[in-house]
Amino acid sequence: MKSSKVAVAINSFAGSLLRIAGYSVGAILILALISGFADAYDGSYTNEALVLSGFLIALCAVLVAIGTRIKRRVHRFRQYVSLMSSQKLTSIADIAARTSRSMDFVQKDLQKMIRKRFFVNASIDMTTRKIIVCASTLPGQGGSMECEVFHCSGCGAAGTKAKGMLGHCDYCGSPIQ
Fold first, then answer.
1. pLDDT tens, 14-30?
2. Could you give the CA distance from residue 70 to residue 81 in angstroms, rounded to a whole number?
3. How far apart are CA 26 and CA 17, in angstroms?
4. How far apart are CA 26 and CA 61, in angstroms?
């Protein structure tokens, strides 16, 4: 759980930092561009300066968009954890219905969160389309399920799955016994 908290905190901080940087630098660039137009009444404002300003403002918009996407992912993580721990939902279909998102979106989102270490000792059972969280990585969930580490024969990736259950590699999709 500790590394999960660290991953979530780092992502939350990075999202906020990117958004603040994007908005701040963008605002400064827009003000500089406006003041440049006001000072350049004689036509001395060059096309290169306009292109550079436009590029930098677009870069700021990208920073804001990436920061917003990261912050939304952290918010969805907290929403998923709440559903899984308090309401004991593990089915991707149930989580998707509760969050008003498609099953494919939720499955890809959970896989990305597992890959980014938001969930520790978790995997998705592709046959039952359920998320399996092992060794009590969710608050308030008992650790009655044992996990085992596997090495994919298809791509060599390591992962964890519930002991005795079928699974699929998160990277190449190969079935894991």
1. 999 999 999 999 999 88
2. 17
3. 14
4. 8
